[in-house]
Design a protein that fits this description.
single chain; alpha+beta; Immunoglobulin-like; four-stranded antiparallel sheet; 2 helices
C-alpha cells in the first residue's frame, strides 16, 4: 500500500515537472486588414525557451504555407508585423491563413490566424500600385 502511494506521488511530481518545464505561451494571434495590408499581432506571456518566430502565409489556392519572414525574440512580449506584399500580383483572394511558428528548445509550436473575407477593389488596387514602386 505504501509503495503504491509513493509511486502515485512520483508520477504526480513528474507530471508537474513536465508541464512546468516548458516556458512559452502565446496569449493571442490575430490577423486584421490595415488598408491594403494585413497586420499580424501576437502577445506572448513567457518567452523563456523561445529561439525565434517564423511567419508563413497560405492563400486559398496554395497547397502549403510559404515562409515570409523570421523575427527575433523581443523583450516586450507584444509583436506586430505588416504583410504589405499580399496583393502585389493584383489577384483577389478570399481566404488567407497565416501561421506563426514559435521555434523553441523543445520544438516548433504553431499558431494560426485567418482572414475570411475578400478585400475591396481599392485595397487590391492600392497593393498593386505600391508594388510598382518597389
Amino acid at each position: 500500500m505504501n509503495l503504491s502511494r509513493r509511486y502515485i506521488s512520483f508520477i504526480a511530481a513528474a507530471m508537474v515537472l513536465v508541464f512546468t518545464s516548458f516556458q512559452f505561451q502565446v496569449n493571442s494571434f490575430l490577423a486584421v486588414y490595415q488598408g491594403s495590408d494585413i497586420r499580424l499581432e501576437w502577445k506572448v506571456a513567457d518567452e523563456t525557451e523561445l529561439l525565434n518566430y517564423e511567419i508563413s502565409r497560405k492563400k486559398e489556392s496554395d497547397a502549403s504555407y510559404s515562409k515570409l519572414t523570421e523575427i527575433s525574440k523581443g523583450s516586450g512580449g507584444n509583436y506586430i508585423w505588416i504583410d504589405d506584399n499580399l496583393y502585389k500580383d493584383g489577384d483577389g483572394i478570399e481566404n488567407i491563413s497565416y501561421r506563426l511558428t514559435a521555434n523553441t528548445g523543445s520544438g516548433p509550436k504553431y499558431f494560426y490566424a485567418n482572414i475570411q473575407h475578400s478585400p475591396t477593389a481599392i485595397q487590391r488596387s492600392w497593393g498593386s500600385i505600391k508594388s510598382m514602386f518597389r
